[in-house]
Design a protein that fits this description.
By secondary structure, this protein is an alpha+beta fold. The protein has helices spanning 34-41, 84-93, 106-112, and strands spanning 6-7, 13-14, 16-17, 20-29, 51-59, 69-80, 101-105, 114-115, 130-131. The two termini are 30 Å apart.
Length: 138
């Protein structure tokens, strides 16, 4: 693993290993299926330490009709990009939409300070933007 960020042509940094770029993975899930999602993620052959965000406003497939806003749950965790196919395959095997798996360069994620903002066109979700809750003691 490289310790120092590697600068790309776009001047954005990335953290690389033999397993690919370090990314933040985001999955939107109906709150009623959160437990099943977490159980599925526990079967991935690498450790996952998820952050769970509740009541995130989105519009799209989970609402039952396009354009109708509803609140959903978003699960985020770091992973290497080379491992994303394993995550998608497991989710698909358990009846989750593999297209619900979104990822963002971890350094861009840290710089932005915003979570779950990439739930857009290709997953059928309108933009969902929210600020991460301030940590106690910060």
């Amino acid at each position: 693993m490289r310790i120092r960020p590697e600068l790309t042509a776009t001047r954005s940094g990335s953290l690389l290993s033999a397993e690919g770029e370090l990314v933040i993975v985001r999955i939107a899930v109906d709150p009623r299926r959160l437990e099943q999602l977490l159980e599925t993620l526990s079967q991935v052959p690498f450790p996952i330490n998820p952050e769970i965000f509740h009541n995130i406003p989105v519009a799209g497939p989970l609402s039952g009709s396009q354009g109708t806003a509803h609140e959903t749950t978003v699960v985020e965790f770091p992973a290497y990009s080379g491992r994303l196919p394993e995550v998608r395959d497991l989710l698909s095997a358990q009846g989750f939409d593999p297209a619900s798996v979104r990822s963002q360069n971890v350094l861009e994620h840290i710089r932005s300070g915003v979570s779950a903002r990439s739930m857009t066109a290709d997953t059928g979700y309108e933009a969902a933007q929210f600020q991460k809750p301030a940590s106690a003691g910060n």
